[in-house]
Amino acid sequence: MKAAVEMIAGPQANLEAHGLMPGELPDAIIANLRQTITADQDVVILADIVGGSMCNAAMALLDLPNVRLVGGMNLALVLQLVLASPTDPVPLSKAIKNAKKDVREVVLDLDADDDFF
């Protein structure tokens, strides 16, 4: 996901990616993250699957008042958050609502009167 975001938006200093590799424990990754989060940061953790092992482990960070967790991320959501202006950030709830609109079946209507090209 990070590579896709940076291919579109360029390098992002405030974007990190942490993936679970075979043999690794989610709790170890979360423990390392806890050590890096400072009180002056607003942290949004985006997990791929609600109820997945990384999302469940990341819930342990929700005791920090500056950490928010979102499960079910997609590229549209990450791009909205990354490309938001620091002076006019997109509220997380609005970004989630917008990203949900991008999840739908795409159908080609061959009987339509409009030319596709």
From TrEMBL:
GO biological process, one term: phosphoenolpyruvate-dependent sugar phosphotransferase system
Chain ranges of the PTS EIIA type-4 domain: 1-107
Pfam families reported for this sequence: EIIA-man (PF03610)
Keywords for this protein: Transferase
Keyword presence, NAD: no
MF GO annotations: transferase activity
Matching InterPro entries: Bacterial_PTS_sugar_comp (IPR051471), PTS_EIIA_man-typ (IPR004701), PTS_EIIA_man-typ_sf (IPR036662)
GO CC term, one of those recorded: membrane
Protein known as: PTS EIIA type-4 domain-containing protein
Source species: Lacticaseibacillus camelliae DSM 22697 = JCM 13995
